[in-house]
Fold each of these.
Amino acid sequence: MIDLVIDQRRKDLGGFEVGRVLPFAKRRMIGPFVFFDHMGPAEFQAGFPRSVDVRPHPHIGISTVTYLFEGEITHRDSVGATQPIRPGEVNWMTAGSGITHSERFETLRSGGGTMHGIQAWVALPAELEETDPAFAHHGPNDLPTYESPDGKLWARLVAGKGWGAEAAVKTHSPMVYCHWRLKAGGRADLPAEYPERAAYVAQGIVEVDGREFHAGQMLVFAPGDTVVFTAVTDAIVMLLGGEPVGPRFIEWNFVSSSKDRIEQAKADWRAGRMKLPDADHDEWIPLPEAAPPPNPMS
């Protein structure tokens, strides 16, 4: 039932840490999910420096999916979108042929507070990798929710299809992305709806197949069986999966089925040929000169 357990690796982003889960050496992708970062939880005091913000940087070939449990982030991008994201909302940015964006902690800088959420990258199918860049924001009314009769499971479908429901978020390949809140003793099922599935424990402890798993662990499941979860403590779990989209190369912020396309994107970024968000022209992030060559991802 459980093929692999992936422990998050802590990464310092220059002001706060994230727990990086995907990509992982033994399992590069889960369905179309090519990247998975657990942001925080981190406590910020009012007045922290702007150096903590994520300055403008580029992407190709993916959609970025930002979802928060606590806090607020202001998104700005090169297609002209400026959008705060708050808990229970989804920012879905399709990079396609190329986009740049920044992520600012303006509200937290003003009043302080907790930052806690997930950012994932979803690889576009090869035939859509060069689609026009776009941005969409979705509030809770677009995201179906469910509560069990005993009150011990609350669920929100963040994107895709699952459990007979569908979120009003435009996706580009068959996938599921779901947020569970479980109270101690609560039970929930992950059906065998997709060939690739995983669950990330963002908070608390859950039991699966007679074993306990804690916050910061991703469980990757074999296809074909329904997976039953029991909450040992109150817990937050993110479910993800879908149909595979084929091998990918990744270098820095660029993802593509073509190594040559990544080299082109690197050259475009170094030469200043990728448009920046209108308010961000003085703070773009340079491509690391020591970046490793693209690695194949499967």
Amino acid sequence: MTTVTVGDLIRRRRDLARRSQMDLAHEIGISPRHLSFVELGKSKPSPQVITAIARHLDLPLRERNDWLLAAGYAPHFPETPLTDPALSGIRASLQTLLNAHDPFPGAAIDGQWNVRLTNEAGRRLISGIPEEVRGMPTNLFRTALHPDGLARRTRNFSPWSAHLLRRLDRAVVRTQDTVLAALADEIATWPDIPDRRGWSRLSPDGADDPVLSWQVEIDGAELSLFTMMGTFGTPMDVTLSELSVELFFPADEATETALRRRAKRS
């Protein structure tokens, strides 16, 4: 088997970003010749050079660690499990945010779009969907796009799935995550999912509203929801850098009333 060097990784990422050696080298303050030698494996870059290149290419923290390891250096960024006591304060704050958002659904998700924290409204939203459909832990892409998941309840599946598939495609390209890539390949085999090669060009059409809403039927009521995403502003830990919060809001008064009534019944 051929060993992948840090130079190979840098060149692949630079090509994906469509950056020339000259422009990138000048940005980080090294000569184009040195960057060329690094990519060819003729020169070993320092940790500072690796970090600078990764930062200018906007690499995820996990991949920056991978580059350092490939060059023979120790990883720079820690990866602390969300359940670790060191993150108990952050975990509690996230749960407080999600609970305060109830009776509207909300979840904290990791880089593979697995649900790590949620509120009661989020649990109510996916109630009745088998574990083998939504995954363990629950994965938002699987749950939303699987024919036995929320796909069958989604009334505007074409534009909503276009939004999700483009988001998934961008996540695969940005992170180069093999698990996400495998999930994308699996989803491409499901009914009503367009060809995998065209996901990057998908665009929700026919939407006149300021934001695309998700039209979904739950317990006989048709809900209209839009979402907002939030991330940590200055993460220095791999886990936190990959964590985001997605909050669902009612797009109309009827949806808000239905969600509040559903919460009271529960």
Amino acid sequence: MRKNLKFEVVRTSLAILIALVIALIIIFSTSSEPGTALKEFIIGPLDSVRHFGNVIELAIPLMFTGLAVSIMFRAQQFNLGAEGGFFIGGIGAMIISIKATLPIVAHPFAAIIFGGLLGAIIVSIPAFLKVKWNATELVSSLMLNYIALFLGLYLLNYYFRDPNSGAIASYKIPKTAKLMVIFPGTRIHAGLIIVAVMVILCYYFLYKTKWGYEIRVTGENKRFAEYSGINTAKVIILSQVLGGFLAGMGGSIEVLGLYRRFTWQELPGYGWDGIIVAILARNNPLYVPIGAVFLAYLRIGADLMARGSDVQNEVVSIIQGVIIVFIVAESFLSKYKHKLVYKEAKKLSVKGAK
């Protein structure tokens, strides 16, 4: 187990290093001021409290969708509905924040729970379709993302749009529903505390509970899980309900933490980014914050580089693509892994002989 973890750390680190080297080559090849571009890209996110705050603000929704995808992928359920779950969770938060009249603490709590439930409903539909009719969750979840989008836009335009806003936006979110800022000089809000708690709970759930064990065993080998008496249909549904709830929570917290009105006119993209975070974290909840902060750092650095130099921020897309290609490539560093396995087996055989 320890050798496998070491291999994954080395492989992921090397993939990131190769991607960064390629990015550096592109910057030096295309920029007339590579020094300025690199300074903004690498140091920019750390040069002020506000910029570092931007990194953490961006990392919060990425952690939620990363957790959501990690739990679903642990059960080998390739549900891509975190994007729709995140969006509909934001719609749910908008509905409760505008329609309900509640005290300061209860108001955001109710909005987040409602958004999470809507996310769970949307994301779990592919699970029920798979259990009932063996429909692939990959295709059905992709289609449901757009159902969630247009359902949300319908509600926004016909029931919650403020005609005096001058744009397609909801009525203002009341102050009682807003999440408080926890670090002055930034927009880092209480969602950071909530997501930290969820990281711990998700890790405990996956590795310390019966249900988490069933999810992991089903993901490793579904047939073995069935022969062991595990109800794999229940596991398939449970993993995607939980993933949807986390994605919906993320959308709710993003709206209540950073927006005065609901203004999304398209899918925000955090669900797709959550897949990248989950891949970087190897579907382990404890590593999700690292993957999320890393990706957020790249995004903010690229944005600062685009504003302060002649290099466009699309360079981050290249980095993301290279990292994913190397991490998912099974043959990448396979010889190194075989050597680790051989050394471990040799040590065990020597101990056994003694």
